[in-house]
């Protein structure tokens, strides 16, 4: 800002000082300009918009003072457009490729093994099909054992079906379902051999099944498959999920250990740089080339190369050069949320470090400002992708960051010194505890984030501090005055868990019962959070089908549950046995119930009306619940015609239609039983739920039909009338 403006407007003076403190030196600015121009070029591609962006650059380049800047911007914009066009062409080639369908013998290289994602699906690069060379597009591989690691060459026979899908950040043209493995040849590449061995060592050392061990694996190598969906959601809602998306801090810890091991060989700068590059390549293999790791590794390699050439490289220049190089090589990276968050978080960290430079005590200010700057930097991406951002994220990160460093270091040392394993697990458990507590904090939308940033800025500036404090108090009063999502009257909520059942009974006293939990624990956890549920007096597993109880296994370990009810006459299933085991591990009493069992949940009377006896069908043996508090609701699980005919005559005000509206329901029973409201709980499915004839019966009965598929959560008060 000009001197006159800075004198007249103190805020402009403060901004000017801040910018001087934050902005890097000129060479680094050029690197950042190149990165920004490349990203813009990749984004717009060789389109009318792209060439329109070149016009102002050409005009500005006519001025001598700005010629260098505009030349850099123009060149890298064009290069980015070329890279973006190439990335688009690769995707289109995959989408338009002709992949044969049928039984084939396929030879392929494993580019992502089954342990690289939460779905257990590998990705292969074809080399031969039915004995003939075939340079086809990459394929998803279903049924490949986790012991077959990246870099291996596999010969397998199975069913190949075409169909474009995405596995992590990879577009594949079809899926090979393996029937028989004929040959496996592990990679002989040293980086793959060492990297795969280290990954195996981490997974076996911390494979005990404890929550804390799952977190340590995530911290060390980014593998979150052993972290439960509830724990992952807690980390996300606390703003801590980035710690298990391996990034710069993990690379730093690994490289320190690598330098210690290779110290005797690191005599000359150039040889040290080569060893550093080898270490980075190994770590990229260990973490299965997460975009954030690739960014951090290349950013680390830039100063190593600079040191070997005698060229100093500061962090800003390293960031700019790394982003530019990566986007020029693979424009696809720009579409990766992990890459976007990694770049923006790194920029935020560098801003925070610069702002804390002249403040004392510096370590306190650095921790605080780095955390806040990083959170502000990633806020736009988080809001677009997830729709909300936790208010307590800066505080949670401030508390957890040193614990994460400790858990990561101790976890790494545990690979060599087994006695440190319990200590590492204890620190990891402390991190999960902090996430459990802070995940209950407010989640801010766009308006909330903007208001928080503006308020913080006003408080930070001495001139506007009184206004900022007043604004902060107003925000606190508004948040405190918001009504609780817990209902003030007895309520039944049919939760939207996709294709499945999960029904919640809530009493104004704060007590709650959950009947079934759908198939996905993460979806169930988010649904319960929407209704402010943190404790459940009773969880009912009506029967053993996955779409009713698969979500309950993790819930019993993550929520405070009073009792688990199961059917006395249930035929049982492996999945139901897992639910019971999870209850026993957490010392949750398991109660076998049948018709006649009753309880009071505050003002809600709950009665078990089925099963009446032992049935051949597990569906007929479902626990059926009648709940009433003014109005009544029948929650019958998946009972079918035989059990329906044997049930005593009932006429509830609200009926949860059995078996998601399946044709297995007796239509006469349905016509006699349905009351004012019928709720269909279902999602997208291949079973034809709900059956049109069942829907027709409900329509002829003049019943109000509601569904989770169309409405989401269906909330019905058990007081008043229709």
Give your account of this protein's structure.
The chain is of the alpha/beta class and 722 residues long. It folds into five domains: 27-94, no CATH class; 97-187, Beta Barrel (OB fold (Dihydrolipoamide Acetyltransferase, E2P)); 194-444, no CATH class; 448-481, no CATH class; 491-717, Metallo-beta-lactamase, Chain A. Helices cover 50% and strands 18% of the residues. It contains 26 helices and 22 strands. The strands form four sheets. The chain has a seven-stranded mixed β-sheet with strand order 14-13-12-11-10-9-22, covered by helices on one side. A seven-stranded mixed β-sheet has the order 15-16-17-18-19-20-21. Helix 4 packs antiparallel against helix 5, helix 8 (229-238) packs across helix 19 (521-530) and helix 15 runs antiparallel to helix 16 (421-438). The longest helix is centred in the N-terminal third of the chain and has 30 residues, at 67-96. 43% of the residues are buried. Residues 5-9 have low confidence and may be disordered.
């Amino acid at each position: 800002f000009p001197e006159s403006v800075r004198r007249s407007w103190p805020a402009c003076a403060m901004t000017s000082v801040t910018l001087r403190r934050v902005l890097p030196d000129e060479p680094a600015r050029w690197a950042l300009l190149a990165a920004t121009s490349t990203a813009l070029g990749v984004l717009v591609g060789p389109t009318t918009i792209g060439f329109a962006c070149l016009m102002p650059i050409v005009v500005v380049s006519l001025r001598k003072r700005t010629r260098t800047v505009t030349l850099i911007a123009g060149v890298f914009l064009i290069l980015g457009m070329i890279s973006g066009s190439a990335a688009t062409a690769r995707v289109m080639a995959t989408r338009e490729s002709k992949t044969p369908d049928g039984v084939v013998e396929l030879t392929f290289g494993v580019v992502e093994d089954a342990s690289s994602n939460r779905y257990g699906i590998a990705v292969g690069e074809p080399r031969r099909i039915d004995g003939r060379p075939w340079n086809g597009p990459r394929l998803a591989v279903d049924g490949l054992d986790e012991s077959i690691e990246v870099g291996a060459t596999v010969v397998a026979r199975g069913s190949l079906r075409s169909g474009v899908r995405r596995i992590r950040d990879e577009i594949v043209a079809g899926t090979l379902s393996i029937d028989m493995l004929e040959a496996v040849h592990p990679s002989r590449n040293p980086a793959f051999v060492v990297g795969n061995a280290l990954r195996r060592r981490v997974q076996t050392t911390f494979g005990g099944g404890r929550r804390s061990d799952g977190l340590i694996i995530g911290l060390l190598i980014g593998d979150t498959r052993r972290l439960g969906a509830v724990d992952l959601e807690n980390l996300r809602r606390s703003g801590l999920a980035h710690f298990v998306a391996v990034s710069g801090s993990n690379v730093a810890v690994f490289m320190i250990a690598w330098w210690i091991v290779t110290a005797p060989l690191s005599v000359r700068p150039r040889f040290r740089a080569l060893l550093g590059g080898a270490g980075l390549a190994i770590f990229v293999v260990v973490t299965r080339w997460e975009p954030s790791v690739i960014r951090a590794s290349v950013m680390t390699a830039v100063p190593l190369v600079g040191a070997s050439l005698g060229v100093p490289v500061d962090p800003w220049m390293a960031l700019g050069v790394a982003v530019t190089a990566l986007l020029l090589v693979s424009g696809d990276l720009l579409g990766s949320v992990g890459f976007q968050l990694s770049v923006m978080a790194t920029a935020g960290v560098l801003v925070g470090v610069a702002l804390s430079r002249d403040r004392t005590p510096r370590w306190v200010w650095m921790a605080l400002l780095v955390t806040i700057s990083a959170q502000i930097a990633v806020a736009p991406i988080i809001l677009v992708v997830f729709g909300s951002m936790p208010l307590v994220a800066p505080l949670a990160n401030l508390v957890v960051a040193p614990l994460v460093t400790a858990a990561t270091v101790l976890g790494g040392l545990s690979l060599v010194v087994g006695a440190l394993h319990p200590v590492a697990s204890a620190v990891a458990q402390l991190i999960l505890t902090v996430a459990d507590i802070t995940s209950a904090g407010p989640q801010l939308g766009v308006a909330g984030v903007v208001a928080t940033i503006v308020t913080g800025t006003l408080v930070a500036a001495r001139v506007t501090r009184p206004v900022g404090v007043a604004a902060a108090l107003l925000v606190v009063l508004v948040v405190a005055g918001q009504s609780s999502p817990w209902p003030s009257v007895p309520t039944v909520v049919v939760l939207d868990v996709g294709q499945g059942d999960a029904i919640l009974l809530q009493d104004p006293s704060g007590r709650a019962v959950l009947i079934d939990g759908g198939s996905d624990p993460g979806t169930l956890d988010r649904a319960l959070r929407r209704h402010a549920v943190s404790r459940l007096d009773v969880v009912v597993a009506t029967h053993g089908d996955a779409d009713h109880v698969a979500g309950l296994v993790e819930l019993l370990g993550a929520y405070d549950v009073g009792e688990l009810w199961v059917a006395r006459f249930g035929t049982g299933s492996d999945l139901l046995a897992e639910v019971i085991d999870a209850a026993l591990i957490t010392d949750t009493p398991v109660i076998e119930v049948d018709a006649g069992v009753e309880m009071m949940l505050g003002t809600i009377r709950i009665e078990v009306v089925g099963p009446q006896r032992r049935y051949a069908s597990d569906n007929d043996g479902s626990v059926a619940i009648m709940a009433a508090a003014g109005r009544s609701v029948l929650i019958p699980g998946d009972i079918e015609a035989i059990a329906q005919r044997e049930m005593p005559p009932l006429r509830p005000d609200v009926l949860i239609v059995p078996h998601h509206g399946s044709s297995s329901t007796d239509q006469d029973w349905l016509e006699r039983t349905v009351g004012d409201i019928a709720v269909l709980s279902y999602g997208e499915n291949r079973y034809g739920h709900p059956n049109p004839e069942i829907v027709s019966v409900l329509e002829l009965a003049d019943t109000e039909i509601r569904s989770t598929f169309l409405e989401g959560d269906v909330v019905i008060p058990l007081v008043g009338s229709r």
